[in-house]
Amino acid sequence: MEIKAFSEKQLLAMNWWEPECPFSEKTAIICDGAVRSGKTLCMGLGFVLWAFWQFEGAVFAFCGKTIRSLKRNLMGTLLPVLRKEGFSCTYKETENLLLIAYGGRKNWFYLFGGRDEGSAALIQGITLSGVFLDEAALMPRSFIEQALARCSVEGSRFWFNCNPENPQHWFYQEWIRKADEKNALYLHFTMEDNPSLSREMRLRYQSLYSGPFYRRFILGEWAETHGLVYPFMGEGAFCSPPSRCSRFRLSCDYGTVNPSSFGLWGEWKHVWYRLNEYYYDSRKEGISRTDEEHYRALEKLLEREGVHEMECMAVDPSAASFIQTVLRHGKFRVIPAKNQVLDGIRQVSVALKEGRIRICSTCRDAIREFGLYRWAEGKPGDVPVKENDHAMDDIRYFVSTLLPLEKEDTGAPVLTVERGGYFAERED
Fold first, then answer.
1. pTM for this one?
2. CA–CA distance from 66 to each of 112, 288, 413, 426 (Å)?
3. Are strands 59-64 and 130-134 parallel, antiparallel or unpaired?
């Protein structure tokens, strides 16, 4: 195969299993480090090449956090390269099965998603000759250990790929720090290890992250979280509302004892502005509000801003009673918000840095929370302090749930009333 523009480290990640390589006796490889360092593609190519060198008519697994992310991160780049080099690749959607053939030989590669603890059951019962684990640090330990246990064929090997997380993460402690004990080759990547990435692109990626995300995704370090979640959102980060907007959306973090925060968003010239907000703290005010009172406050917010038509609103799905109230009025399209906290924070950071969203100076409680929202120290994993986070949550709901609708509007679930409850009209 003719592969151009690979660095020495990328070539090692691809070919470490070859008999003439000094690491050929290793039974696993672990590649971690910066984003856009090229580790995923070279490992994917190496995994397939090794499978055809070692086996024929065997079964393997590609695993990711979700099958969708696996297709996006790996398959979208891997399959065109394989086909260009003469491999036949046939994907069976209903079975999540990739059949690869070359030179009269065939092997089967199943795709699995390791989203949560229940995902381990999906991979039980299969016998594998090898497994590729993409985004290993984002998958539950139970799923990864079940996948490894499936590799009972003589000569099977493990391939791990990940970006760094918290240094207390079990994968860092049990595999990276113990790589020699596990008989694993450990390779650490930086952006400089990817010769296909230009200096301009490296500078662009460096500008998108700050704090622990910069240390992890740019420097490739397993770094602790500490300090402000959004340290770059100080004075000067907020703007005046645009003179007009072409469309409107709303994000809602609903609370009964805790504050409720609704953010009104307007789009102008491909940028979404958080124009204004409704923020109600029942503890501070000394009196709780009903779902109906919150709904009326929502309508007053729209009226005050001159909004006559709103496209949709994202609401935390746990706010069942408030969702029913909104749907009962029949005026607004409701989309259940995605509520993965750490992924959402990353997405908000990038959206703010890229200028795809902006926070207006009229959003006083959001601005206050930006100055107070901090990482919890002394706890395992990455956990923000559960204080001063209500506007932060509604902003996160907007970015993770409503901002992607620009590209895939038809994939979003929509809630509608059904016999006094609500259900998803469309499923993603």
1. 0.81
2. 7, 40, 18, 19
3. parallel
